[in-house]
User: What shape does this take?
Amino acid sequence: MNTVLITGCSSGYGLETARHFLAKGWNVVATMRTPRANILPASDRLHLVALDVTSAESIATALEAAGPIDVLVNNAGIGVVGAFEATPMSHIRKVFDTNTFGVMAMTQAVIPQFRARRSGVIVNVTSSVTLAPMPLAAAYTASKQAILGFTGSLAHELGHFGIRTKLVEPGYAPTTAFAANTEVSVEDLIPAAYAEFAAPIFAEFAKPALVTRESDVADAVWRAATDLTGQLRFPAGADAVALANAA
Assistant: This one.
């Protein structure tokens, strides 16, 4: 029976992805900073593990607790929306610590066991900001674009050892706590000078014609994890698929 380790399972995409893999009969190691009981269906195939992807010690402890895994899903992430000029560098570093360096650290930590077995899958969850430029998301886009390039390169590098590396690119999900774990609010990051520019953008965000559901992302992660065709990128959600097709 296959085992998947998923980061960032306390809510949103990670939580739904854990549910999806459990329903498919997999063993699931669901990780989050502070594990909470009863957020996932009770199962002897479920293992809740504490994990902070920005801490090398936490990563080592979590992987030891998890034991051998077949798939790593790097889903944990935080966001920032606002004018780049007004975004504190301290927060930009926090975004990169989770979205970029956290993904790299988790990946580097699991490669040895995958390489030794000459099998395994790494699925990195990014965003539709990798599919098209979007305003008021410069720092967030940079953190996710880095993983786009990182994953594409690793697909070649690790393919030599039978390790598959994939990207899942979710679209816009208005119900997702996009800016969770942040010390700044959107209001903080829209100075008066940007108000006229930002108003129509936020108005469009409030009424998107196409949105991404958490189940769309869970399904895309599943397809990426089980894909044998060599496909690298998996847009998730109607809006992300539309952007990918327009590219």
Q: What stands out?
A: The beta strands are 3-6, 27-32, 46-50, 71-74, 121-125, 164-170, 233-236.
